[in-house]
Design goal:
alpha+beta; 5 helices; three-stranded antiparallel β-sheet
Length: 150
Amino acid sequence: MLEVNYSKLFRDAHKEAREIVNEVGDYMIAFKISLADQWKDIKGNMSEDKIAKLEKQGWSRWTKGNFDRLYFNVQKTDVLDLEYHNSGTISEATWNGKEISNGEARRILAMKAYVDIADGKLYIRYYRNGDSDEAEMLRKVAQDSLDSIA
């Protein structure tokens, strides 16, 4: 759990608000802006050390515009093992040593698991209605990878 020194948080927010109040015009607005900035600094933004550790585990960093993400590549882990036909289609698939269907494997490969570096949250993107067992399988493996560096 995140431990926060709220006294320091508010002190720093007031200090920053006093610096920007002339630009904003109102102290309460300046305080809200600076408090949001202070909270974002505490809550989010993964350290470069954590990012480097995740990249060693097979995560890939992608940055474009305001987006800064780490994508999880399940094929770089030992969780999903695939064998292919000469045509390139999947012939056998196992998840943690347990045989899964080729369809499940294709759905897992089609999903995107990523961490938004700004907020530190894990997101799973998939194109299927309702809950997905495959999405939950991918979420658990990606979360375990994240937790291993904490």
